[in-house]
Amino acid sequence: MSIGHTLLGLLEAGPRHGYDLKRAFDEKFGHDRPLAYGQVYSTMSRLLKNGLVEVDGIEPGGGPERKRYAITDAGVTDVETWLSQPEKPEPYLQSTLYTKVVLALLTGRSAQDLLDGQRAEHLRLMRILTTRKRKGDLADQLVCDHALFHLEADLRWLELAAARLDQLAKEVRR
Amino acid sequence: MTHAPAGSLLAATGLHKAYGPTKALDGADFSVHPGEVVAVMGPSGSGKSTLLHCLAGIVPPDSGSVTYAGRELTAMSDAERSALRRTEFGFVFQFGQLVPELTCVENVALPLRLAGVRRKEAEHTALAWMEKLQVEDLAGQRPGEVSGGQGQRVAVARSLVTGPRVLFADEPTGALDSLNGELVMQLLTEAARSTNAAVVLVTHETRVAAWSDREIVVRDGRSRDMERAI
Questions:
Q1: pLDDT of residue A65
Q2: Can you tell me the mean pLDDT for B51-73?
Q3: Pairing mode, if any, of strands B214-219 and B37-41?
Q4: To which H or E segment does residue B166 belong?
């Protein structure tokens, strides 16, 4: 995820201090990976240098510098461009799991056990996400659903692979 | 033959069942504890439905054991098994199978009415369950007048109205879109957990199975407990 664009997007609603920005980011997007303060300040100084934000005010007082940042017109344009560009879909062609299955078959180990173990691991995570979704708010539900649909796709592949193991075994040993 | 796990409410060990030359079950095991939701997964034709039918006492296995609360199902008479299904077990299928001539509340109250409960009392209990499944507003409507998702929630309310100790759910979200399927699973598992009922959930959808506590995969008539696959 582009931290710079996300922080810029959050600034569009109005000027904020670095600390507020971090808090807003963590609340909305950083459940599992909160931003480090250092990352916020280094990102803001880069945005400042590129003219995408400006300093709107500095609060006096001890501790770290309390700068208030505001987005510039160039910053708004930058956010708009970012949002309008489709993300490149993941090609998913480099699969560790596929490599493991082929190697298991080549070396005479149980590929079925490998697939079952992976399936159980996937479902374990899906259960955790489902519980989080059940207890969470709408934002939690959307984030978890996104992950759940991807895990489900993996599991479908695991099922298909399990059903084709005999055929695959013949081909890899050829 | 292995024994049923300690504390299990419903358990099967070494189940075999063949239909002519076709082996539907070939040594399947299963167990569920009170308050536990167990998903039964597996490819089409793997034996999932036969396993469910044996567990619910609908189909007798050729060999093997099914025990419910310590009692051997295969040793019971048809009448005893039938009474067990009416009083201790609840069922939800892919298509709600509601009676189209009855209103939704009459549908939910039906198992109680068949058990001899008076109409007023039966419908009072039915309404309480409909509230839990968030369909109390549909009480006076007929199944043809409600959506698929609503109908399925009415069916779940009906399956729980007698306070069963085991709920058998066979592809309960199979005919629903993602959003309605989610709601059915959320309310079904919450309702079952609130009464400490065990749930046997047959599904081919992993997102549905993720609402369970544990998963069994059936392949070629044999079961594998996925907890032990790691």
A1: 62
A2: 94
A3: parallel
A4: strand B166-170
Q: Is the pLDDT of residue B145 over 50?
A: yes
Check CB contact under 8 Å for A120 and B224.
no
Closest-CA residue of B relative to A133 is B186
Instruction: State how far the Cα of B220 lies from the Cα of A72, in Å rounded to an integer.
Output: 64
Closest-CA residue in chain A for B210?
A: A127
Are residues B104 and B140 in contact, defined by beta-carbon separation less than 8 angstroms?
yes
- Are B198 and B35 a contacting pair, CB within 8 Å? yes
A37-46: Cβ within 8 A, 24+ apart? A37/A64, A39/A3, A40/A7, A43/A3, A43/A4, A43/A7, A44/A7, A44/A18, A44/A69, A46/A4
- Which residues from chain B sit within 8 angstroms of residue A148, using beta carbons? 207, 210
What's the pTM value of the predicted model, to 2 decimals?
Answer: 0.82
Angle between helices B104-114 and B119-132 (to 10 degrees): 120
Contact between A37 and A76 under an 8 Å Cβ cutoff? The reply is: no
Q: What is the ipTM of this complex?
A: 0.80
CB A59 within 8 A of CB A18: no
Rounded mean pLDDT, A148-157: 92
DSSP β-ladder status, B214-219 and B222-225: antiparallel
| Contact across the interface for B229 and A119, Cβ inside 8 Å | yes
What distance in Å separates the CA atoms of residue B133 and residue B71, rounded to the nearest whole number?
Answer: 32
Picking from B61, B141, B43, the residue whose alpha carbon sits closest to that of residue B52 is B61
| Mean pLDDT of the B131-149 span | 94
Cβ within 8 Å, pair B215-A155: no
pLDDT range class, residue B73, cuts 50, 70, 90: very high
Higher pLDDT, A19 or B226: A19
- Asked if the model's pLDDT at residue B1 lies above 70, the reply is no
